[in-house]
């Protein structure tokens, strides 16, 4: 592609190093318009919209450059690659059309043949084992209880030394400010009801943090990481003033970053990782062909979080404090930060 990229195309080992994203080949906005889609059951709709058969790895700059649209309308890319992408889109579109129309007519065999679901790339026990280094135990994080000669420091010492699981949960939740919880009331309620344990860990390059083990609606474990306030020692990110006071206090005093294990999804990223949206997406300047009427410049938005996939939340000096830009595929909307953050975090629990 034309323009200057911030990083290359390798898959990195941790936060902010990964230059690829799992992207839909056929955008969701097109999928839901397929003939017969509205006649499917909710379970079948979820199956169609989340099948790996409609996914591919692309560079993060490429994904946000095309904004979820077809490769046929993206300029500045290799023509052979563009032709291959269009052929791929046509094949996947045809396969999904047949599966949806057949299922809507009562024959779900093609739909059932579609592979569905995969271990989370951003959280869960699979991701945790990867970060721990598996059987080797040489990953980027380690549980503090695995190193008995070393104890956590304040403010996590009391949680680290608590022998009772329920006590660790109580101590961790006691640290959360009520004004921040009021911003995300539904997730706050689910967190209190579904939090099963809290453990102190140490990231080799980041310092200590809390791991929150939360049970989702399917009984699976979802893991959030909350960072030690002592790690927030650098300058504040650009457009810091666009965040409400409750968010400032949470990121300063409670957890300077509360996300999935990828460090950037389903919560609020560490302030040290927040940047303009263009920088996060991998560009040194504005994203090529990004600007259009009604859309804020990619260099004038502060990236806060996303779903590790096709949705991103950004604040901006062009919006009121407490408002965010919601970027989803090729759509741009303005909404309330608390409402969107609440919904995003709850969605990780399949709620």
Account of the 3D structure:
It is a single chain. With 351 residues, the protein is of the alpha+beta class. 33% of the residues lie in helices and 19% in strands. A five-stranded antiparallel β-sheet has the order 3-4-5-6-7, sandwiched between helices. It has a five-stranded antiparallel β-sheet with strand order 8-9-10-11-12. A two-stranded antiparallel sheet has the order 1-2. α10 packs parallel to α13. The N terminus is likely disordered.
Annotate the secondary structure layout.
Elements: E1 20-24, H1 28-31, H2 42-49, E2 55-59, H3 60-66, H4 79-104, H5 109-113, H6 124-132, E3 141-143, H7 157-161, H8 165-174, H9 178-183, H10 185-194, E4 195-203, E5 207-215, E6 221-227, H11 245-254, E7 258-260, E8 275-276, H12 277-280, E9 302-306, E10 311-315, E11 323-328, E12 331-336, H13 337-347
Antiparallel strand pairs: 1-2, 3-4, 4-5, 5-6, 6-7, 8-9, 9-10, 10-11, 11-12
Helix pairs in contact: 10-13
